[in-house]
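*Target chain*
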Amino acid sequence: MTGGDGAVASPDAGSAAATDAPAARPRPLPSRTLRDVGSLVSSGLIDPTRRDALTAVAERYATAVPPAFAALIREGDDPIGRQVLPHEDELVVAPHELSDPIGDDRLSPVPGVVHRYPDRALLKPLLVCPLYCRFCFRREHVGPDGGVLDEAALERALDWFRTHREVGEAILTGGDPLMLSPRRLRHIVTALGEMPHIHTIRVHTRVPVADPSRLDDAMADALETEKAMWVVLHANHADELTPDAVAAVRRLQRRAIPVLGQSVLLRGVNDREDAMEALLRAMVRARIRPYYLHQLDPAPGTARFHVPVAEGRALLRRLRGRVTGLAWPTYVVDIPGGHGKVPLGPDYLDTGNGTAVSVRDPAGRSHVLAAEEAEG
């Protein structure tokens, strides 16, 4: 269960975009995770007049807002609140939206395992998260009742990894692996580390920004292994990288565990140039290397977050040359149906110039690199 005392530093820390945000409304900070509409109303995060409509949403999709995350919300539809507070539009399902948008179910050989690529596979030991994002591509599966693989099911999943020697990378996801107890997490990491063919273990998490106190020394110790261990932090806005969140990340980095960042391109959260720039810069300041910027997966009721691919490409193109290459993520889409991720660019190679090889610089000017003989 998530927790924390709700004491976090100012949400303005590390965010250029936060300086023009409206002043915070006086409201009590919660002492525990908010899990229903009633608690969201009493905490001043949603208007009481929306209670009935949002109760219907909450009955379908899980709600959880930990104290540390709730403390960052100034208004219900600001970039932080928009990610986690229920909204009436979630009950509107567009024709292209899918309950399993990236094909996890059909690619699961045993419960808790997803095998999409030849050399790596997902291990999902639980379907519980510290918070429930309103845009989540697994929103039909995750929740407080999503549960944990029992001992027998976990061993069957680990046995699958033991017998599939072509798989060299195990990716712990879910749910959020850091919602496990340190003891159980250590058991999984140790079991994977004892498999000679597993050379890399990756852990995907939202805990450092959602509930930083949970990533204590015991949790960080549970991730120590002689194998290559990488942690991928999901953060979508610079305000999420508070001093407490950065301190949680430091516990991993002090153990020589590199931390990568992944984000989802979201309307009203990070689709503005200043917001994306602030997010990428905040990650680099925290020694987090931006890794992926995901195009939104078409999960049910998520259309209000959708940003067209052309707009996403243009956004990144405008940032090229303004932010260091250390802060440059790969913009990717997970092809619906389980066909894997592919990069979306932007690209800078010019076409239509005959035999000349030319590229465009960040300002859009074309430059010839070389002349080549025409093919054929």
In short: Confidence is low (pLDDT under 50) at residues 1-25. The longest helix spans residues 151-163.
